[in-house]
Here is the input.
Amino acid sequence: MALGVSGQALAAALALAAFAVPAVAQNAPPADPAQSEDAGGQDIVVTGIRASLASSAAIKRDQAMIVDSISAEDIGKLPDVSIADSLARLPGVTAQRLEGRDQRLSIRGLGPDFSTTLLNGREQVTVGDNRGVEYDQYPSEFFKTVNVYKSADASLIAAGIAGTVDLRMLRPLESKRAIVVSARGQMNEKDKLNPDGTRYGYRASATYVDKFANDTLGIAIGLSAQSTPTQIERYAAWGFPTEPAAGGNLFLGGAKPYVQSNLLKRYGGVATVEWEPSENFHSTFDALYSNFEETQRLRGIEFPVAPTWGSNAVIQPGYTVENGLVTEATLTNVVGVQRNDFNKRTAKNLSLGWNNDFRLSDTIHFVVDASWSRATRTDFLLETYSGTGYNQSGAKDTIHISHNGDGTYDIVPTIDYTDTGIISLTDPRGWGFNGTQTVVQAGFLNRPDFTDDLKSLRASFNGEIAGSIFSRWEVGGNFSRREKQSRYKSYFLCPPGGGTNCTVASGTPLSFAVPADAVLDEQVSLDYLGVPAMLTYDPLKVYGLLNQVFDNRPDSLVRDNVITEKVWTGYAKLAVDGTVGGKALKGSLGFQVVHTIQGSTGQIAALQGGAVTTSPVADETSYTHFLPSATFSVELEDGFFIKLGAAKTMIRPRLDQERITQAVSIDFSKIGLGSAPQNSPFSSNGGNFALKPYQSTNIDVSFEKYFHGGGYLALTGFFKHLTDFVDPNDSVLYDFSPLLSVLPPAQRAIVVAQNAQFGLVKQPANTGRGEILGVEATASLPFGVFSSALDGFGIFASGSYVDSKIVYANNSPVTLPGQSKWIASGTAYFEKNGFQARATYRWRDEFLAELAGLSANPEYRTGKAEGVLDAQIGYEFQSGPLTGLSILAQAKNITDAPFVTTEAGDQRLAREYQRYGRDYYLGLTYKF
Here is the structure.
């Protein structure tokens, strides 16, 4: 079906092209984006946000592809605090906030896994767990333009299904000499929530651009450093079971109020060297390096609450029920787990690119482009636990819970959780288990690290065509090799003083007194949710005293893996530019042939007879895809364009889904339950090295009206037919007969008699399919178009609607992570005579949010609708001794909008609640 839709769409596009006359090259921004035409055809020079919007409009207008763009207001100055903030203003683009920052971008209802990020046209690796780029690794000061391509082009290598984000650094031969320095201070409205945190930060950058040798050699150098704090009041609920002890009503299963203080430190640099000694040769070398370190301090108390979930708490008479939910209750016999945690992430990103353009004749060019992108990341994720005694043996608490209007619960205890006379380092609920024996788990340490490496070489020929409806041609090929290494180590932490491997049976101490020199002078308060104070100590000091035991459970051992992708892409493209019935037409026809060899190495682990066994495993697969594409832009009237796009695109699955590793389990309790695969004692869980890419057949249409005085209106519709959609939880039947030998003879006989050696292997598979349909509207309007009295005022607003229907093989519906049906964004601004002021409001409907669960595995929950308001005001001196100096004040998250996820579509059942507070910035920039 997908090929049929694609064929019809491309046939229509080819029919339109048959009436065309010759064209110009695509993808060229205007020579001077800071100019716009007035009604009389005269150029008006604008600056700041007006120049940024004018440049973005020019790029959108001149492209045959459907594209939205963000342009820097000046050298080293994108219009928002971060790249992700800026992208989230574009039509059809939303951002999920994590750790108080916009991080996970969704384009047209599809999350980060469905788009790709390019740097100067080259695919980039990521410091994240998968393919989605974390934009924190890219200082916004380094970029001149960010383009989001929403339709495909044959020359756009590594395009995504949802869209392709291309970060563009400035080109020194196209720029004037400049030296720009900038410094900005930051303050969060919340005082530091942890005594070892901070509320103050800074950001500084410097850029130097110059040309030499009669303007044939250009250089651009940028440096950036920042220290960004975040304060987060957090609440997490386990869920809401039906509680028999409360009349069968919904009851809070458990909850953890805690506070988090983050500090992100990042420094980086970019360098571009551009050399054009003659019209026959043009060479450009780019380098980007970014190093960031984020520390997180988290402190809180985890309260198991619902008796039906094993809390052993007792619900007292007199609880309150509202519409089937217990909203207020008192519980006795409660045992909480106090947490003092510390996380540290260190990541580095290096990207190098070298492009050489050789002019072979008056009409033919040969281009060679080589690139290398490499990212490394190491995490130190430390948890430490304290409570009144090991495995519920200490003092019990009486708590009162009461439901709040925002879905959270206040939890008011009676125990003094700061009293070291009753609080010790221990495993308060006896949760520690190493797979075969009980351990005293007074803490846990995860130490994953990742390396993502991508090398690419591209070569192409392009030239002009005379006397034909086609004006230019391009053929080329690209080879890339990507390798992602994921390595995990984890450790049980237990009290020192005896025993082996932290096991209870070996005599490991059940508790350990909190060292007095580790206790901080200031105690953390959780009074925003009812807990007056908790014991606050330095978890790193405690970590240095606890014993460490390597975690060798099967699930832990098989997490290490290496994914390798070798991709050959060949492409050909014809550009069209001319007139049809007196109407200007331009566009392109082309195709890609993509051949992939994809492989993985790792281990298969099993628990047999109480012992963990591992076996190395490696395999690979290959596949080839043909991806046609067509784009056209017709100017029906002066400034009024209709743009069409039709293409087949693909995007590779999450990297963690391509791993070959498997964890095999033997559940003796299932012996004798029957022959159904789910009743087999044997099962396995892991990845699928043979997983194929998602595929999509896309049709796009856009109506765009550009005004002579600047600004435009646009209405865009799109349709995507998706195939090979990945079901992450698919199961296949597997013969586990080789494992029968580990069973005792009597049990083995039962399994064979019932044919129960056939169990299930859980792994992702390409079983899904479906459609996405959407519409986007954009208005970029400088009010000077309507009246000269309004010159300087303007708006940039967008809204979109997306609907999807995705099903797996069993026809079970899929909710797309990151998709909001309705999103809207609006910026109102005034800028004139050096003064500027603007406010931006972003709103999104509810969506399926992705969060990090246990062992950093993704979890999905419904995120509530939210609106975020940002504003800024500034002044640039344009005359006198302070010429070149500008002052800027900004405020982010003025609405103090929380990030909230809920359960079962019930707004009362909050699962995750994060409030970040408002951030304020004050900065100076000087341009020499």
In short: The radius of gyration is 30 Å. The first strand starts at residue 35 and ends at 37.
